[in-house]
Design goal:
By secondary structure, the protein is an alpha/beta fold. About 15% of the residues lie in helices and about 25% in strands.
């Protein structure tokens, strides 16, 4: 049987795996599903149609699955789905989706959400993502695998953040961030590629060299972005990482592509 502290309140309809641990003063709603070995440390509230995958740990005073902070929300039965092996630290908030955004907020596997991070309605977060203390995502933000949001950073609604991107601390992100990029600034600008992250994750030297060369071409001052993209496709057609950035730029988006300051094209 699940290990449930006598001060915890678990609704009768909640689906709780036998290996779950629910600590003191937690509250679990009637539509919640907790997978194998999920641990709610203490003072955790999980509400709404929220599903939490195996081996995820949630720390005190986190608020998971309460209704979105969106005035257009009118009680629709939207969902929040959190994957496996995530760590959700103190005071983190995550909201379910809305009718206007696909009815689903989703979080992948092996993510770390540090203290007071916020995931708003209809966000789609990949695997191995890190939100550092007080990092916040507005509604409808997409975050790719292995991306890192620095402390006190924030992403505007509908922004896309590509895989392996690094967002500097206290950075405000208003535009789409290409995969493998590093951005910094009060209003984010590209400041190069996330070379440290690429090396840590085992990408080979040739792939990184090709990525650097393509980055210089894409954000050179000459020509239009469309022209530079075509030049990159012609020169780097066989390079998987480069083509991922090209596909990202070509994809439909309501936001512009974040650009570097000219002196930072490197």
């Amino acid at each position: 049987m699940a290990l449930i502290h006598p001060t915890a309140i678990v609704a009768a309809g909640a689906k709780i795996a036998d290996s779950v641990e629910i600590g003191p003063y937690c509250v679990v709603g009637e539509h919640v599903v907790l997978g194998e070995r999920v641990k709610l440390k203490s003072h955790v509230v999980v509400e709404g149609r929220t599903k939490i995958g195996a081996d995820t740990q949630i720390f005190p005073f986190a608020s998971i699955g309460h209704q979105p902070q969106d005035l257009k929300y009118h009680g629709e039965e939207s969902r929040l789905e959190i994957g496996e092996r995530n760590q959700i630290r103190e005071h983190v908030t995550m909201n379910p989706g809305t009718e206007g955004g696909g009815m689903l907020t989703s979080v992948g596997n092996d993510c770390l959400f540090m203290m007071s991070a916020h995931v708003a309605h209809d966000c789609q977060i990949g695997n191995n993502v890190i939100l550092v203390n007080n990092a916040t995502l507005a509604g409808h933000v997409h975050v790719g695998d292995f991306a890192i949001m620095g402390g006190l950073s924030a992403a505007h609604q509908f922004v896309r953040i590509g895989r392996h991107a690094m967002i500097g601390g206290m950075t405000g992100v208003e535009s789409d961030i290409i995969p493998y990029a590093t951005v910094t600034g009060n209003r984010a600008h590209l400041s190069g590629l996330n070379l440290v992250g690429l090396k840590r994750r085992g990408y080979d030297r040739d792939a990184i060299h090709a990525l650097r060369a393509a980055y210089r071409m894409l954000f050179a001052p000459e020509g239009t972005m469309a022209e530079r993209v075509e030049d990159v496709v012609e020169q780097f057609a066989g390079q998987e990482l480069v083509m991922e950035i090209v596909d990202f730029i070509r994809a439909d988006s309501s936001r512009s592509i974040c650009q570097p300051k000219l002196e930072n094209v490197d």
